[in-house]
Input
Amino acid sequence: MTLKTLVAAQCRFCAKNPWKILAVAALLSVLAGIAVAHLPILTARQALLPKDEDVAIRFQRFLRTFGAASDLIVVLDGDNPVELERFTIDLAERLRGLPEVGSVTEHLNIRFFLEHAFLLIPEDRLVQFSSVMELLEGMQVSDATTLEESLGAALQWIENHPPLSKIAVDIPTAQGGLEILNFFLDEWRRFLDSPEPPTALAWEKLLVRYGAEGMAKGFFASRDGRMLFVFVHPRDASEEYDSLRPFIEGVRGAAAELAELARKAGRTPPRVALTGLPAIVFEEYVSLRSDILMVVFSAAALIIVLMMAAYRSLRRGLIIFIPMLLGVLWSTGLTLFLEGHLTIITFAFTAILFGLGADYGIFTTARIVEERRGPAPLAEAIAAGMAGAGRAVLTAGGAAVVIFGALGTVRFTGFAELGRVAAFGVLMVLVSTYTVGPALYALLPPRLRATRPAPGPAPETPVRAERRWPAAVAVVLGIAAAVGGTWAARGIPFDYDVLSLLPENSEAAEYQRRMVAESDYQGEVVIFLANSMEEARRISAEASALPSIARVQSVTNLFPPNAARLAEMARPIGASVARASYARKALAMERVALAPEAFSQLVGLIARGQTLIDEAEEQAFSAGHGDLVQVIDRVRSRVHDVLESVRRDPEQARRRSERFFQTLLEMTQAGFRVIEKWQQAEPLTPQALPASLRDRFFTHDGAQVVVYAFPSESVYDPDALDRLMKDVYRVSPEATGFPTTHQVFSRAVVESFTRGTYLALAACLIWILLVLRSLRLFLVAALPMVLGGGWLLGLMAAGGFKYTYANIIALPLVMGLAVDYGVWYAHRLGEFPDLGAGPVMRRSAATIVMAAATVLSGLGAITLARYRGVSGMGVALTAGLLCCLVASLGLAPAAARLLFRRKS
Output
């Protein structure tokens, strides 16, 4: 019994027992629907990566021991620094109350760092600071002394001071004291000249002098200060949509509520944007889901409308559409048992499968219509038509299964799963077409359209052979164009930027790029795990020295190797401040009232002090203390700036100065209280850290220290990524984080595309040759697919297209989608051995065009998707299918003329 006989018998049974077949199909559909309802769609990037790669294993190990590797980054964008900082602190407090939030890091705990600042200051600088404090301790200030009396005493000392050479102050102490004086003068000038008087002193300028920079306000900011960043760590480490949705929406909701409260209070809140990997993954899936739903429903509607317009028969449209729909449903349900999930790649393929599945119904119904015009009963016509189309449909469908199955063997998990899911999808559509299709046709036989009456006998004309030279020229030109396109495709670049796949107005992509360009932070960080604090110090030091690293975050500076020595040195400083009369006086003051007389005294004191500065600079220069001379020169310049500001508007200068000294008093009081606590200074332990620092920089079990390194360039630039990872692996071969997996991910995509394309092409050609068992029919069947693929590559190269993670798979998909056209034409050539190539194409063209049109309907909807990864793939697939269609209608008949010596 031949395959054609078996197919005819099976289809005859389905046509004679339609209700039984439909009942079984309905039952299978219900079961498939239940499976689909339980089929998870994995949104995590890790679902696309090979699981046996070293980087993937390290990354999964980190997730198991530490939780999520990437924070959600809340960006606050605005012009008002005060409002930015206020909004940041208020938002962080709200976020900490959300059940989905694990931890929030909006700024460093400055009080904690100041209380332990002795650990951050190099030992030699701490010696200088201690000397200055001891010198100041010797100043005796009576509690009853007024501001005017203090200024008068200072002026008298300047006018009658002892020789500077007789003052017992060592050079480091003098230099340290002058740096502090320079800082206060510079801040005074800032209060005098700023359009709006500042609200605080910029202590970070002074802390830089003592090696503790970045400790003043502690906010994570862009370089111009217009953006502040809040790092929000999720409680659930999963990157799946069901976990991300409540987390992302909770953060957005908290920010929106706070912004509304700010507006009601008459304030202008900053713009709040979300970026970082959680925001990118969430935005990617949301846009992709809406696009796929739009594509599926619009493609279904377009296919039905197209069939109605072409066939003018609702029944025939349903006979083609319903088996396709059921095949897609069954294959999706079976995916639960075959793969256990869908990924964002396999989810997107659903829309493409929708159009592909219609081809087989179009081919089979076209043959059934031909059989029904004969005398055979309906069931026999159905069986004969399905069997007559069987070889072509099974050849084309089998080729698609082979093509997609070949993709299922590649290294990149995302493409491999796509290949397996697509292959099984095509198989299920074939099964549905050859079971449900005959049953539906038997129940809903479309009305046959009347045929044109046969023309009368034509006068006999001599039979002539078809001209071959035009066909030869067309085929040669087509092959040349395909070869040229394939050669040109070698120069098509690959766009490694995942952000370019997101919608054009993507908030996450916009702020991710701005973070890289305008700050030392970004969402993609390298993560180092150290087994000891000593190793963490080494990693931090080496990583900080790398040009590929913009900033390193760690707590190693709180755990210096000489921590015990620094604590020992800090305790006397705290005791000195506690004893000093000037400190007691300052702590007892409530406000600074700078009356006009006192202000005049202060200005005179500063002016007369210039002579002292000149004398000090001359002695330092004579003694060869160049560094000290530079510091004295800066102090002189600051004194000059202050005096100039006072002369421009004395009354405003008095008010601004009063505000400056009041601010200075308040912050000095806070500083004295902090330094007094140094009397109990001790080295830190991890358990003594604030929870936000401990959770971020130590693993849950406390056994490892975490060091974060922010790349200086975009990790989506392959050259920059290679430089980064080369540097990183020299520091620690065990480094992990998104950049490490992305490097492997990007290479695996390109490698899998190349291997998968060659393997799919070879497997497809072998399959077609084995099934057709005719070299000439094989060449006709394969030519449109091969030439169309070459033309597609040429168009992409000529149009300046770039490969992306989405459209790089277009060529293998085009092969699977367009192989039908040449196979159907070759099949019809075999059915009509007495007809020339042109007449056979005229009999086949309508069916081929209709099959292509149904696929293009789905692809046309895909090109309108918001998610640029999907729309870009839709454009590439549409171009590829049109190329294959043109090759089928034009060059396949030309090749047939050359290969078959038939008369027309």
